[in-house]
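INTERNAL AUDIT FORM
Audit reference: QA-55
Scope: verify that the stored structure record matches its stored sequence.
Auditor: D.O.
Record contents follow.
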Amino acid sequence: MQDNYFDALLDSFQLDILKKSGYLYEIIIDDVTKDYLERTKESREKIKLKKPCQPLGFGYGSMGGFYTFSEVVAQLDTMRLLYPNLITVKDSIGASIEVRAIWSVKISDNPDLNESEAEVFYNALIHAREPMGMMTVIYFMYYLLENYGINPEITYLVDNRELYFMPVINPDGYAYNEQISPNGGGMWRKNRRDNGGGVFGVNLNCNFGYMWGYDDIGSSPYPSNSEYRGTGPFSEPESQSFREYCIDNNFIVSCSYHTHWNVIFPPWGYNLEQTPDSTIFNNLITLAIALNGYRNGIYIPPPENYPVNGYSDDWMYGETSEKNKIFGILPEVGNHIDGSWPIPERIFPLAEENLYSNIVYAWGPGIIENPPYIKNESLNLSYCRPLIDTLRISAIENNPDNHTSNVYAQLLNPNDSLLNEFQLNQTDSTFDGELFFATSDENFYKIRFKQTGLDIPSNFYSSNNKLKFTTAGPLKMDSVAYVKISNVQYGVKPYVKNYGTSMTISGAKIRLYCDDPWIFSIGSGYSNLPDIIPGATVAANNWILVQVIDSLFNDQFNFIAEITSNGWPYWKDTLQLIIPPVGVEEELYEIPTEFLLSQNYPNPFNPNTKIKYSIPQSSNVVIKVFDILGSEIETLVNVEKPAGTYELNWNAANLPSGVYFYQLKAGSFVETNKMILLK
C-alpha cells in the first residue's frame, strides 16, 4: 500500500470489475505465471543439481523448488520411517472433491498415544497458489524431529505438547496448479468444485460457518469470483473435514499459513475489530515477530487490511458451541516481491525466518504456559558518543509463574548481525546493564534482549524494533530559511548539519512540532533530507507550512525538530522562526556554487527594489545600505544563513532620491553594488 496507489493481484473477474469502475489502473504483469517461469528459469536449473539440506530431510521439490502434492505425501512417509518414535503414520482426515486424501500427522514424544498434553495445530495450502506456507510447515516438522534430544527447548516442547500438522488442506487446487504449470507459478487459488458453465472452485477460506456470508465485501456470492464462498457454510468436503478434525481434537493454538505480506493476523477478519482476547493475541504475535520483523496485523487498519468472512481463524476462535475456543492466527509469509511463488533461492530463508515464530506458537505464552519474557525495554540514549557516553540498558520481565531465568542484551548492527552479547543484572523483575563504546566507530545499532529460562528451557527474544541508537553524527540544526506567504503563514525550510567524521547519513527525514499556543498548525508528516556526508549541511527537500494565529502578538517561535534515518528517530534539536521585519521579506531558492551579489532590480527604483544574493556555504550574512558619502543608512540582514540563493525586498519610501550603495559581507567575502532611488 502506497500513499495514493496499491498493488493487487487480480483474476479476470476482478479485472473486469476494475475496468468498469472508472478508477485509474496500470497492468504491471499481464501473466503472473509466465512472468514467474521466465524469472526463475535459471534458478530452477541450478536447484536440480542441489541435494536436500539434510539427508532424506528438508530440501527442494520438483515444482520450481516446491514439493508437489505427491512429494509432500512422500515426505510424511519418510518422517515416519526415520523417526517412528516421534511422529505418527499419516492419517487421512477426509477426501477432497476429486477424492484426494487430506493428510495429517502428529509429532510428540509418544505420538501413537493420546496424552493429556496441550495441542497445537499447524496447517497450510488452503489457498492452492501459496506453497511457501506448506514448505514452512514441513521445514519446522523436520527441525523438531532432527533436534529432539539435542536442543533442550525442542525436546521440552515435543515432550510436553502434541503438535499436529496438515501441510495441504486443498490438494485438488494444488494438484491442478501442478497440472497447468509443472515448474511452479500456477495461480489457481480455490478448490475444484464444478459450479457449472465451465466455472470451477470455492474459496475454502470463505467457506467456514462463523460469519459465513456476513457481507459481499469479505466474500463473494458469485462462483466466478476468487472469493466465492460456496452455496452455504461448510459446503465443501475439504472444509467439512477440517471442521471435524478440529472438533475431534482439542487444539488450543492454531497457525494457518498463507502468503504473502510479512504480517501475522489475529481474528476478527469479518469486521476487522478486536476480539475480547486481543491482549493475548497481541502478546503472542509480538513475541512471534521478534526475529523476522513481520508486522503485527492488529495494528494494520483498512484499507491496507481488508475484511474476509467465513474464514478458518474466525471460526476456530469464534465457534465454541461444538468445540473449544482455539487461538487461531494467520501468518502471511514473504514480502510483495516474493509473491505467491517466491523464487527458489528464497524458499530456505523464508522457512528459516518463521522457525522461531513456530516455536513461540508451540509455547503458547499466556495461553498454554507462562514462560518468562521481556515486556518493557529502555535505553537512556538515542545518540551515544563513542569513547564518552555509557549506554544504560533496562528491561522488565513478564513472569507470572516465577520461573528462574537469565537475560542477555544483544548488540546488533543494522543488518541484525550479532556483534556482542552480555548478561544483565537482576533486581526483582528488572534487569539492568551498561555498555561503553571503547572505539570511535560511527554506526547504527540495535539492542535486542534474550531471556533464557533456567528451570524450563525457554528462549524468548524482545521485539521492540524502536530500541535503537547511533554513534554516527550527531545531526544538529544549522539554520533555517523561511518564506512569508501571508501575515499568518510561513514556509519553513530547516538546514541540518552532520557533525560526524566518517559516516554518511542516508534516508533521513525531518518533522517539526511546537507547543506554542500561537501556532495554529504545522505541515504534517516528514520532509525528506538528502544524504548528509560528514561535515555537510543540507536543506529539507520541501518547505514546511507553518500557520500562526496572528504574527502581531509574537515575532518568534521555537520548534522541536525530530530527525529520523530510515525510519528510526534518533536526533532532536531546536530551531527558531523569526518573523521578518516590516519591509524586508526573504525567499530561499536553489543552493549555489559561489558567492554572488546581484544587481538590484528594478534600478532605478521607486520606492521598492529587490536584492538577490547567493552563498555556497553556511555563513554569517550582513547586508547594509549606505548613502553616497558612505554613511550607513540601514542594516537589512544580520544573521547566520545556510547555503542558498536569497532575495529580499527593500522599501526606501522614507529616503530622498539619490545614489545608494548596498554591501554583502559573508565570511571573508565582501561585495558592494550601486543603486539609484529616483522619485
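Auditor finding: record pair retrieved intact. The two ends are 61 Å apart (CA to CA).
Action required: none
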